[in-house]
What we know:
Blueprint: H1 3-24, E1 29-31, E2 50-52, E3 56-57, H2 64-76, H3 82-90, E4 91-92, E5 96-100, E6 103-107, H4 113-132, E7 138-144, E8 151-155, E9 161-164, E10 172-175, H5 178-183, E11 186-187
Antiparallel strand pairs: 1-2, 3-4, 5-6, 5-11, 6-7, 7-8, 8-9, 9-10
Amino acid sequence: MSKNLIDRIDSFISQALKLQLDQQGRLPLTIYDAEWPSECYQSTAEEGQQVPWKPILQSQESNLCHDMFQRLELALEYTIHEDIKTWFSQYWADPIPATSQWGDLSLIFIWNEKDCERLRGNLLGHLMTKQKQKQPASLFFACTEPDGEKFLTIDNETGEVWLEQPGKKPIMKLASSLEQFLNELTPKPIPDLEQ
């Protein structure tokens, strides 16, 4: 894991939380779901009620995401780029909005252990499609807003960040690395999820 990338992710999360508290005066709200537990919940509530949440560092002892990526690598028979492993192994969180010179986007994180398995299935499907289309392997970590029709990926070979559209060749290179790309982002307030 790249210490510089970890520091950059930590810095972005800190900036996002500071912006949230400065502009909203409180943490963002999500809907409490006992069937979808997460360390991100900052209190318990009745099922379906709003509850504050915030990104939480994943315990490095759990190795949950590390194990998930090992299984993904076994299924694919090649190594996944270290930056994408670092990205999804750092925080539990809901998506976090940001803006950049390329427009608004939503950074994808995982909420809990079940979400980790769902992500594995989605990444596997994406990689199998790339393989079938004889395109370079890439792994997504964000999507464009407000439509979500395009997504941002890390090229598995080079670590470059690209803008892509499902089923098509990559559209445009955005940065030479995820760390460099994160330097270009500005967090936006996190919207509440309504009941």
